[in-house]
Specification:
The complex is a heterodimer of chains A (103) and B (408). Chain A has 103 residues and is mostly helical. Chain A contains five helices and three strands. Chain A is 50% helix and 12% strand. The C terminus of chain B is likely disordered. Classes of the chains: A mainly alpha (103), B mainly alpha (408). The interface between A and B is medium-sized, with 17 and 20 residues.
Chain lengths: 103, 408
């Protein structure tokens, strides 16, 4: 995947909670990446096998709304993103974004 | 023209409508937007569900954002799939985008021929009246154009038969010759002047040569050659810019001293295009571009011939001097206006008797009048189709250098 600021920001947001579920809108707000950039990145991560997706169980919903789609990091994804962030920290272009990330 | 467009966009009625649609019915709008995705694309359901997670106040903006998602995630992959599903030749013929190298040749040929024919027809249409009045033969300019077309096609066929590696090797010598020619024109008293600028060298046999024309070709060949040879070093900005940018500045300065603004701008555009195709970071490229533009405008406004300043100012706003320096622009605009969407019909335009240089510099205005917006857009599309196979298949041709030329 091409290393861009957006990719690093999304990786940071995902690695904030490496084992939890992530939601599209929430990810875009936390990473500060707009949907038009975020969704293509997520799709590529799915293709790479870094992410797995799933749908909420409709029977467990309390309000009346359609089930949402969530994304979870796979083991492969955690390794890949961790390596990516360590690399980005030493990269002059991205260092300031990753500053506090410790792997 | 642009002002009118902007005015229409921000008029209060449009604003109200946008407010209404985005403000009160984001859900309904989203339902329309997600239709960009395929029927079984999970993104469709995902976005509809995701809307419920967005705070109510932010929903209109969020829905607006999804337009972009729909374009790149929905429409583009569907288009690409559709394009892949049919044989390249059929696809190329239908859309003007070539996929395979084999079909590119014929596509280019077809597009070039189409442009030549349209050009001939429009030259005849735009010039017959003036030609009859001035020369007594309505076909004078048409014949001249036809001669150029035939000559051009012959040259094109010859040139396309020559191996591109030969062209690569020709770049450097041609550059030396062109630069020498440009210097010669500036300092040698034997250079030929006309229209207040000294651009030509007279050759034995009575015809004249313009070194600036060779400079364009030389810059193109040389830069493409150098950048292709350095392909692996191009991640480094210095390698990317160093031979090409100073060279362009040198050539541009020499041509500007003639003075010849048009060719100077073309030289800069060539360098710009090559750097773009070679993969210069956009931020850097736009920086260089705006700097160049600022310098250019500065030269035009403060340090150049009065006629050029007047031409430039009346280009910005032709209204103050409608009978003189703004005349051409206003008449051309009238032509475009009266054409409307579909045009008044081939040969039926009236503005061609008013727009000066109707069959050369301003033929586009006449096309706009007779064939309308549809006609002008089709012609622009043909030009895009002419440039696309070159830039679109960077990995296709045997070398990067071969790919960078068509753009130039």
């Amino acid at each position: 995947m091409r290393r861009t600021h957006a990719l690093i920001q999304v990786a940071l947001a995902l690695m904030q909670d490496p084992t939890g579920c992530h939601w599209g809108y929430d990810l875009s707000r936390r990473s500060g990446v707009r949907s038009g950039v975020l969704y293509p990145i997520l799709r590529r991560m799915l293709d790479e096998g870094w992410l797995e997706d799933g749908w909420e169980d409709p029977s467990k919903l309390s309000e009346k709304r359609p089930p949402r789609r969530y994304y979870e990091l796979t083991n492969k994804g955690r390794r890949a993103l961790g390596a990516l962030l360590v690399e980005a920290r030493n990269d002059a272009r991205f260092g300031f974004l990753v500053g506090r990330f410790a792997s | 023209m642009i002002g009118d467009l902007l005015g229409a966009m921000v008029s209060w009625r449009t604003f109200l409508l946008a407010l209404l649609v985005f403000g009160f019915a984001p859900g309904a709008l989203l339902r329309v937007i997600v239709r960009a995705f395929g029927r079984d694309d999970s993104r469709r359901r995902e976005l509809l569900a995701e809307l419920h997670a967005v705070p109510r106040l932010e929903r209109p903006f969020w829905v607006f954002e999804q337009l972009e998602v729909a374009l790149f995630e929905g429409i583009w992959p569907r288009f690409a799939k559709w394009a892949k599903s049919r044989p390249p030749a059929v696809f190329a013929r239908r859309t003007g985008l070539a996929l395979g190298v084999g079909s590119t040749y014929y596509l280019l040929l077809a597009v070039a021929c189409a442009l030549l024919v349209v050009g001939l027809v429009m030259v005849l249409s735009a010039s017959s009246g003036a030609a009859l009045a001035k020369q007594g033969d309505s076909y004078t300019y048409f014949k001249r154009q036809l001669m150029w077309v035939v000559g051009g096609v012959v040259v094109m066929l010859v040139v396309s038969r020559i191996d591109y590696r030969v062209w690569r090797r020709l770049g450097t010598p041609l550059l030396v010759v062109a630069t020498a020619g440009l210097v010669y024109v500036l300092i040698h008293p034997g250079a030929v002047s006309a229209y207040g600028s000294t651009r030509w060298i007279s050759m034995p046999g009575g015809f004249t040569v313009q070194p600036a024309e060779f400079a364009k070709l030389a810059l193109l060949l040389f830069s493409a050659h150098v950048l292709a040879r350095k392909a692996r070093l191009l991640r480094d900005v210095h390698h990317l810019l160093v031979p090409v940018l100073p060279l362009t500045m040198l050539l541009a300065a020499l041509v500007m001293l003639e003075p010849n603004l048009g060719t100077t701008m073309l030289l800069c555009a060539i360098a710009f295009g090559i750097l773009f195709v070679a993969g210069t970071p956009l931020r850097l490229l736009s920086g260089i571009g705006s700097l160049g533009l600022a310098v250019g405008v500065g030269i035009v406004m403060f340090n150049s011939a009065t006629y050029r300043r007047i031409q430039f100012l009346s280009f910005l706003d032709p209204a103050p001097d409608p009978m003189n320096s703004g005349y051409q622009f206003i008449q051309a605009r009238l032509a475009l206006d009266s054409g409307g969407l579909l045009g008044v019909g081939l040969g039926a335009g009236r503005q061609k008797s008013y727009v000066p240089n109707a069959h050369t510099d301003f033929i586009f205005a006449i096309i706009g009048e007779e064939l309308g917006l549809v006609g002008t857009l089709s012609i622009l599309l043909l030009f895009v189709a002419l440039a696309t196979p070159g830039s679109g298949s960077l990995s296709g041709p045997p070398t990067r250098s071969a790919a960078t030329w068509p753009v130039g």
